[in-house]
């Protein structure tokens, strides 16, 4: 029996690619090839962009009320199809079903926010600003926009992009990850079912060639990217040099600082969940714990609690840690674990070679914990993107803040304490874009912007919230004078002054 092929989505229709280049989509828990995904041709990308360009003429002039109603129907469809989307995520990504359902929920938040577009896309107005002159702004869409997403959140990351982009009147071309494309495609189909006209949202698949073609295409006005630092830096430069607006949310090395006065049970539970959830394949995963003072005494309990976490296929609802997305990802993570041990870090819990009886061929790495990690070690410098927690100590909160601020990345950081003064000092002095206080993964609700900083971000504006509205729109300022005939200023005015 032939394998199912993942279609493109162009002009509101499923399109079978004519490419000669295909990639297997593999279930990471079983190594079963579940589908084949095409690497679209340049002509197919051109067709998607042409469809989006043609649709833009009508969609930008569709009323805010009607765009809002589409988003309202879309959010209901997302609720109704949460289970279906979660199963697709688990089958191709590997994360546990409860985690996949949570991902759909975080994507749903953005769609719910987009339902308020009528109040979000408001301009400013000044009546009689100068001598009968009114000044006002129009918040207008850009045109055809594009998004390139990573594998680790095949529903949430597209939701960080196209719902607000199309709600503000743009049309869109999405290139999801080729490693787990089915959930992203199904998400787009639900948006069309909700009422987006043909061409408003298109999906193409592919690798670097299609990503480069998106950056270069003259009819694409803005590009949003979420993924690795290496690829994001390339995308940002290439798209910017082509005159496009671009945002790139990239790599991270997120820290969790634990003070000895923290609620011990709460802090340990949250740290373990943030370090090992989704097998560490989150850009906001907590990969470094900084234990301050007497909190160092918690290390043995941390290790034993991590050892007790259940590793298994994502379809097992009792599993805490699923497989890594690919054999290559597993090999890379295990290589870095070996490097950490060779560089002198204390390997307190080794997840290499972890086998799961019910899924013997899965890409599993068990929870891994290092202690005594220093800033020079490769396991600290590199984003491991696996279930590996690096631990280090600090004498004081000041020392911990200095350690975190010396890291070049600035995606997220957390502090656990019961001391309000310490929390205030931390949030004021830490140089990281997203800060959690007694919360391990400080991804804000969708009506606040995702505000990673420093080496974790290129571009002034991030996804979600007010910044996303600014990113997907441009401001047009109108200065107008309407007066009864014969009542305006007389004579020629050669100065710059409004009279």
Automatic annotation (TrEMBL):
Q: Which GO terms describe its biological process?
A: L-valine catabolic process; thymine catabolic process
Q: Which domain of life is it from?
A: Bacteria
Provide this UniProt record's keywords sorted from A to Z: NAD, Oxidoreductase
InterPro entries to which the protein is assigned, alphabetical: Ald_DH/histidinol_DH (IPR016161), Ald_DH_C (IPR016163), Ald_DH_CS_CYS (IPR016160), Ald_DH_N (IPR016162), Aldehyde_DH_dom (IPR015590), MeMal-semiAld_DH (IPR010061)
Entry's Gene Ontology molecular function annotations: methylmalonate-semialdehyde dehydrogenase (acylating, NAD) activity
**Where is each Aldehyde dehydrogenase domain found?**
17-478
Q: Which PROSITE patterns match?
A: ALDEHYDE_DEHYDR_CYS
- So what EC number does this one have? 1.2.1.27
SUPFAM superfamilies named in the record: ALDH-like
Record's family?
Answer: Belongs to the aldehyde dehydrogenase family.
Q: What is this protein called?
A: methylmalonate-semialdehyde dehydrogenase (CoA acylating)
């Amino acid at each position: 029996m032939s394998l199912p092929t993942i279609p493109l989505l162009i002009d509101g229709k499923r399109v079978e690619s004519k490419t000669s280049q295909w990639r297997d989509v593999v279930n990471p828990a079983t190594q079963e090839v579940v589908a084949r995904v095409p690497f679209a041709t340049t002509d197919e990308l051109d067709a998607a962009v042409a469809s989006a360009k043609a649709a833009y003429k009508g969609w930008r002039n569709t009323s805010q009320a009607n765009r809002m109603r589409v988003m309202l129907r879309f959010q209901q469809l997302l609720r109704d199809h949460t289970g279906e989307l979660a199963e697709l995520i688990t089958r191709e990504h590997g994360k546990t079903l409860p985690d996949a359902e949570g991902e759909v929920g975080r994507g749903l938040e953005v769609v719910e926010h987009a339902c308020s577009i009528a109040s979000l896309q408001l301009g400013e107005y000044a009546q009689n600003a100068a001598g009968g002159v009114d000044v006002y702004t129009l918040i207008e869409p850009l045109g055809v926009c594009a998004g390139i997403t990573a594998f680790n959140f095949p529903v949430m990351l597209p939701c960080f992009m196209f719902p607000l982009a199309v709600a503000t009147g743009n049309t869109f071309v999405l290139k999801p990850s080729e490693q787990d494309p089915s959930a992203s495609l199904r998400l787009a189909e639900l948006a069309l079912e909700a009422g987006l006209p043909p061409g408003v949202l298109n999906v193409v698949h592919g690798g670097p060639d299609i990503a480069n073609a998106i950056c270069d295409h003259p009819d694409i006005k803005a590009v949003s990217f979420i993924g690795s630092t290496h690829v994001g830096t390339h995308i940002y430069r290439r798209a910017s040099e082509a005159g496009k607006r671009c945002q790139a949310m990239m790599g991270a090395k997120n820290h969790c600082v634990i003070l000895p006065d923290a609620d011990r049970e709460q802090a340990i539970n949250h740290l373990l969940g943030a370090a090992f959830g989704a097998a560490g394949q989150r850009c906001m995963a907590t990969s470094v714990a900084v234990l301050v003072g007497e909190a160092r005494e918690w290390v043995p309990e941390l290790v034993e609690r991590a050892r007790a976490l259940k590793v298994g296929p994502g379809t097992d609802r009792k599993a805490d840690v699923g497989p890594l997305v690919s054999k290559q990802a597993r090999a890379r993570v295990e290589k870095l674990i070996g490097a950490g041990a060779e560089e002198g870090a204390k390997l307190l819990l080794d997840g290499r070679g972890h086998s799961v009886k019910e899924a013997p061929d899965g890409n599993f790495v068990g929870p891994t914990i290092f202690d005594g990690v220093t800033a020079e070690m490769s396991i600290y410098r590199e984003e491991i993107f696996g279930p590996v927690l690096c631990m280090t100590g600090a004498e004081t909160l000041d020392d911990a803040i200095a350690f975190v601020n010396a890291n070049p990345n600035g995606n997220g950081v957390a502090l656990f304490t019961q001391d309000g003064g310490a929390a205030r000092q931390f949030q004021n002095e830490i140089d990281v874009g997203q800060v959690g206080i007694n919360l391990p993964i400080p991804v804000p609700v969708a009506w606040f912007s995702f505000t990673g900083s420093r080496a974790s971000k290129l571009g002034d504006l991030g996804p979600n919230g007010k910044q996303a509205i600014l990113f997907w729109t441009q401001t047009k300022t109108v200065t107008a004078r309407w007066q009864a005939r014969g009542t305006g200023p007389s004579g020629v005015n050669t100065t710059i002054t409004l009279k």
